[in-house]
Amino acid sequence: MNKNILLTGNPGCGKTTLIQRVVARLRCPVGGFYTQEIREEGARLGFKVITFDGQEGILAHVAVDSPLRVGKYGVDLQALESVGVTSVQRALDESALVVVDEIGPMELFSKPFCQVVLDALDSEHVLFGSVMKRSQPFADQVKARPDVTVIEVHRGHRDALAEQVLARLLATGRCSTP
Fold it and tell me: Whole-angstrom Cα distance, residue 56 to residue 53?
């Protein structure tokens, strides 16, 4: 069985929600980060990166003036690297489970991010996270690795997938449930 599990699917299908639900049910040291939308009056303005020890940074925002852009969002590599990449590096030193949500177009502007993802995949730790569905060379390389299981998430079966993903993570022997 592959030790690394990555969720994929269309934007908004519930990958981050599924990651949060599964991690909440595990008993093991967890490190890394997840992303969260920044919304104001119903409009999405950007994305935050949030670590499992409570640090936050603005990954991308409509108000960020950056030459690195994904759609209308300017990407802040400094925030990604100082918060997100650092949290994954720390998880590789301290945690059984490394969470990376997500290996996506904004994050892939960062060479240190790509390197820490490869370090996590190559480590003895379990990497649990999400990866963009759309084809992109680095993401495709990660999805094609023999030690990675890719699970596609659809909004209609997200809740049922939680049990399947939890069982796979428990089967690694690195985590348990309360």
Answer: 9
